[in-house]
Design brief:
Order of helices and strands of chain A: HHHHEEHHHEEHEEEHE
Oligomer: homodimer
Structural class of chain A: alpha+beta
Shape of chain A: globular
Largest interface: A-B, 18 and 18 residues
CATH architecture of the largest domain in chain A: Orthogonal Bundle
Distance between the termini of chain A: 43 Å
Largest sheet of chain A: 6 strands, antiparallel
Strand order of the largest sheet of chain A: 3-8-4-5-6-7
CATH topology of the largest domain in chain A: Arc Repressor Mutant, subunit A
CATH class of the largest domain in chain A: Mainly Alpha
Strand content of chain A: 15-25%
Helix content of chain A: 40-55%
Chain lengths: ~230, ~230
DNA sequence: TAAAAAAGTTAGTTATGACTAACAAATTAA
DNA sequence: TTAATTTGTTAGTCATAACTAACTTTTTTA
């Protein structure tokens, strides 16, 4: 690891691109990530992405060949993990200490993750007694930048009779998060798959003595660990 | 107050200029503030300031006539007070919960004060049980934007025999703040002026059974309330 | 009050990071 | 295997916000 990392004189935009690329590569486990895919994810034009990728290649955070797929260097990966650590610690703080709900934390954490202060984030971590998971269930990288991906599968991949535990939810949509809490689902809820309807792939589930029918789209955003 | 305030779609730079102008006008109690003075304070060129003042006039946050002095509108003032509220609440949080020292908080608070979330700052205020003063002694504006200036005089303005209480310190210099805590001065310390030396205006003071000689420059940055 | 100094303004340049439009390369489908 | 589509690149534009250099107005002082 070079000492370039400690200077960390990156702009907010540069950080956003590195984090986005990391999430496509690692979180979504994509075999390859292209320029336009990254542009899509960040909701900017392919031209903007192309431009930024050039800059990040020059700074040795990104690797790619002309017309080829994108990848991160060790340094690039390290910066992305730190951003994810900051994001998840702030989300945890907002939920556990400042009365924020699941669906309110994301936008504010997007801002807070760009605050530059090593001491701030490590002290925040200590203050909360080194939490392992963020409010959506995702694992929080530690101060050494050790990153683990939560073992999880989509609720939609289960079959009738399966029993599972809710381990995480996709935090990409405010409406989805609101819906999850409204029907009473929470992290660690035990869910039983009663029926998978072939017609529209909707799923009938039971949890906390409640029976609900959810759509395929909903079940794609709920991550579980199989119990039975 | 217009509803323009609630949109608050100002850039970091625009906010910095408004806050700086407010501090020159109100905190330093300047009779008039000019373009170059504001440039000096923000450590940017007069041309940059001139440019930004034009923009802020167009947005109706600043008032001034060509070649004339600068002033803030009600809206401009309101935005500045909110920034000061945010800055001081974050400083308080960093010192009281995250083990930051006096001299470490300023730079991080400069970043945090630009985070845009009404809920974040009001919940932080509640979490700390609505503190009245920041770690440097300054008053924290409340959620309604009510701003009070701490009644304070410079230690350097006192005479031999005067007794006073430390109410605030100027937070502009890290070295100054380090020095203050090193010699053992803290908020509410009772200070007795033993001698004012005509030659170099240095002052001999006594506090907590310690006797120290401090320079005029030092005493200009220490704010007190007279007791005797 | 005229000259000097200080304060304020304007014009033109630079860097960042968006954008569109046009074009080139790679992939997919007919 | 050619044609169509998707993907990636380049060139040129725009806004923000900094800068220097040159110039104008105002204020100070000799």
């Amino acid at each position: 690891m070079t000492n370039k990392l400690n200077l960390n004189n990156l702009t907010k935009s540069e950080e956003d691109y590195l984090k986005a690329l990391f999430q496509l590569l690692v979180e979504d486990n994509a075999a390859k990530v292209g320029n336009n895919q990254l542009a899509d994810y960040l909701k900017v034009s392919p031209a903007s992405t192309n431009n930024m990728v050039k800059k990040l290649k020059a700074k040795e955070y990104v690797i790619s060949e002309k017309y080829g797929k994108l990848d991160l260097t060790e340094d690039g990966r390290s910066i992305a993990v730190r951003l994810i650590r900051k994001h998840r610690l702030w989300e945890t703080f907002l939920c556990n200490y400042l009365n924020f709900t699941w669906d309110e934390v994301h936008d504010v954490a997007e801002q807070l993750e760009h605050i530059k202060s090593r001491k701030l984030i490590d002290e925040l971590d200590r203050f909360m007694d080194f939490p392992k998971n963020d409010p959506h269930g995702e694992l929080i990288p530690n101060a050494n930048g050790e990153y683990a991906v939560l073992p999880k599968i989509m609720l939609s991949s289960l079959s009738e009779g399966d029993v599972c535990k809710l381990v995480a939810v996709n935090d990409g949509s405010v409406n989805f998060l609101k819906y999850v809490s409204e029907i009473g689902l929470a992290l660690s809820s035990e869910i039983k798959v009663l029926e998978v309807r072939e017609f529209d792939k909707s799923i009938r589930i039971e949890f906390n003595d409640v029976i609900e029918t959810v759509t395929r789209k909903f079940a794609d955003n709920v991550f579980v660990k199989k119990v039975v």
